[in-house]
Design a protein that fits this description.
Elements: H1 2-20, E1 38-52, H2 59-73, H3 79-104, E2 107-116, E3 121-127, E4 138-144, E5 147-152
Antiparallel strand pairs: 1-2, 1-4, 2-3, 4-5
Length: 156
């Protein structure tokens, strides 16, 4: 029984670590710090709320499958029945782990339509951050590598 609890603890830890990942515009990844970024001026045309679907990396399914199989196999009974129960519990655990990972990594976001000073338009989806942007706000698009974030323009 203690082995079962150990695997449940490992599964919960993996799920929590996955949920801690952030794509917030207020959080800068370590690899993006101290890098030169391109900045473009623009104006917000519109903003709409969206949901960014969660990840399915396979970690949740793997952990759920292992935990389910161990839990199902550890039951008492005939060896053959315990093996079948272990396989069935493993499949159910994998499905549950996958769903938990996907749900825990889903996040609320906004799609921001911006018109640049040169007339070009850009649409950027980013997680909701501390700044509240509205149509007409002057903003800057900060591009670091292949990542873009939108933030209010500094007042002159």
């Amino acid at each position: 029984m203690k082995q079962w609890l150990k695997w449940v603890g490992i599964g919960a830890t993996v799920a929590l670590l996955g949920a801690c990942a952030s794509s917030s515009p207020d959080v800068i990844q370590r690899g993006d710090s101290q890098r030169l970024a391109q900045v473009q001026d623009g104006v917000v045309l519109s903003i709409r709320n969206v949901v960014v679907d969660g990840n399915q990396s396979g970690v949740g399914a793997a952990v759920g499958g292992v935990v389910g199989a161990i839990g199902g196999f550890s039951g008492s009974g005939v060896q053959r029945e315990a093996q079948v129960l272990g396989v069935l519990a493993g499949v159910a655990g994998a499905a549950a782990g996958n769903a938990i990972e996907r749900f825990s990594t889903k996040e609320e976001a906004v799609e921001i339509l911006v018109q640049l000073k040169n007339g070009d338009r850009r649409a950027i989806v980013q997680a909701k951050g501390g700044e509240q942007l509205v149509a007409g706000d002057p903003v800057v698009l900060v591009t670091t590598g292949s990542k873009v974030r939108v933030t209010k323009a500094p007042k002159n």
